[in-house]
Amino acid sequence: MLRTFRFSRAIPPAGPLRLSNSFAPSRTERLSARQASGPRIHIAGLRMEKKNFEDEAGEGDRSIKKSSAAAKFKPEVNSMQRLLSSDSSGGWEKCWELGLTPWDLGRATPVITHLHQAGVLPKGRALVPGCGTGYDVVAMACGERYVVGLELSDKAIEKANELFSALPNANYFKFLKADFFNWNPSEKFDLIFDYTFFCAIEPEMRPEWAQKTSELLKPDGELLTLIFPIDDHVGGPPYKVSVSDYEEVLHPMGFKAVSIVDNEMAVGPRKGREKLGRWKRPARPSSSL
Ligand SMILES: C[S@@+](CC[C@H](N)C(=O)[O-])C[C@H]1O[C@@H](n2cnc3c(N)ncnc32)[C@H](O)[C@@H]1O
Question: Which regions in the chain score pLDDT beneath 70?
Fold first, then answer.
């Protein structure tokens, strides 16, 4: 489904949404997704076979419905959820320390690499809140775009710096430890990219997420959301999301969707459960007084 709103300054059409048939069937969906995304940063020793967050979460939920015996198939997500629910302040750090990071794709999400390479992302300053290992941060960073990866977890930042600080584009990104909700940088952003952060926070925090996003973005800045996981599972994180969940909190902040389309470049089991949303705040008509 495509919803389009007209603005005085149009965002370039979302090219990637028409290209995704480059997903050729292959041995595994994940492998084909990697192939479809074009060049990728290769880092020796990087773990590539990480289980998928959504795969695990979805199966975990089904397992709970089916039988407790079946739940043992997805221990990583179950353990992560237990940890987060038992420790609201330090749960994320513990997940990182224990290597309970089932959301981690082990690479940038293909659509962000594609949008970057297609030259359709805003230049200037970009922010990735809850960036995790920071693959998406690194994928977008270039001479024309400085990217800040914001993370609550020291361990995540340590890992990101270990992996990426020697890359040729390392001058164009940084990882910063801060709580997104309390962070007040001196400069605003031209682009904010949210992927698996909205679904990771408690649903009652979503209005605050929208408020903070609005504060951090320049008036003509773009919010790019990979809306995931769109399904009907219970509990989280990841909590289920829908386009209307985003609209509910973004519309009061003045954001309108420029486009919302299926992300056909979604990896493996995320396919069909992920939409790309591009949001802006239309310029207010100037007063005639
Ligand atoms: C589900 S993970 C997603 C990581 C990354 N976006 C990805 O797709 O791989 C959510 C991340 O948000 C971080 N996080 C949670 N609450 C946060 C907050 N209030 N401020 C900044 N980061 C936060 C966690 O430490 C975790 O790394």
Answer: 1-73, 286-289
